[in-house]
Amino acid sequence: MMAVTPPVCDFGAPAPDFLLPDPDGHPFSLSQIAGTRGTLVMFICNHCPYVQAIIDRIARDAAELQKLGIGVVAISANDVTEYPQDGPEHMAIEARKHGFTFPYLYDQSQDVARAYDAQCTPDFFGYNAQLQLQYRGRFDSSRRTAAEPDARRELFEAMVQIAETGQGPREQIASMGCSIKWRS
Predict the structure, then answer these.
(1) What's the CATH number where 146 sits?
(2) Average pLDDT of the segment spanning 53-73
(3) Cα 181 to Cα 7: distance, rounded to the nearest angstrom
(4) Is 1 a residue whose pLDDT tops 60?
(5) Which of 9, 15, 72, 154 lies deepest, with the highest CB count within 10 Å?
């Protein structure tokens, strides 16, 4: 499995709108998720070792960011015909297992992933209160295995900065992960 690195942050790019269901079929839109101080859109999946290495840290940081007025959502867009473990029923289990405090949505058409130009799992998009892109970097220094427990919380720090100033850090290290599993 080859690692993929997404492009650098396109500062100011608007957040594409969406309406996607959670595993129970309840639809969520970007406007429902957007926070008063910023919004974090994450593309993840259940089977990727890069995601699994940080999934509990994602849940921890998301809960803390929500308390700061940042809306958080995770989206899975993988082809579930080829990767059935990424399907909605498994997404629901994953969300419960890790105590997600944010919606975990399924992009069956993959249209939302394409609109965001998501490249890999995990791929993080941090927006300010005006839904202008300010961060497209990595979570922390983790790779296929988790970084040390005291690793710098790069995504968390960036989102706090965005909440406080409306601007993301100018220096960002791209995320790395498994490619999105596009349907043929």
Answers:
(1) 3.40.30.10
(2) 98
(3) 18
(4) no
(5) 72
- Residue with the two structure tokens 């082809």: 79
Q: Hey, is 167 helix, strand or coil? A: coil
CB atoms within 10 A of CB 35: 20
pLDDT, the chain, mean: 96
- Written as six digits, the tokens of 114 are 């394409």
The pTM (predicted TM-score) of the whole model is: 0.97
Q: Is 27:42 a contact under the CB 8 Å cutoff? A: no
- How far apart are alpha carbons 159 and 154 in whole angstroms? 9
CA pair distance 42, 99, nearest whole angstrom: 16
Domain carrying residue 125? 3-179
Cis peptide before 122 (omega within 30 of 0): yes
| Inside any domain, residue 93 | yes
Residue 184 resides in a domain: no
Does residue 68 belong to any structural domain of this protein?
yes
pLDDT for residue 7: 83
Q: Are 54 and 28 in contact (CB under 8 A)?
A: no
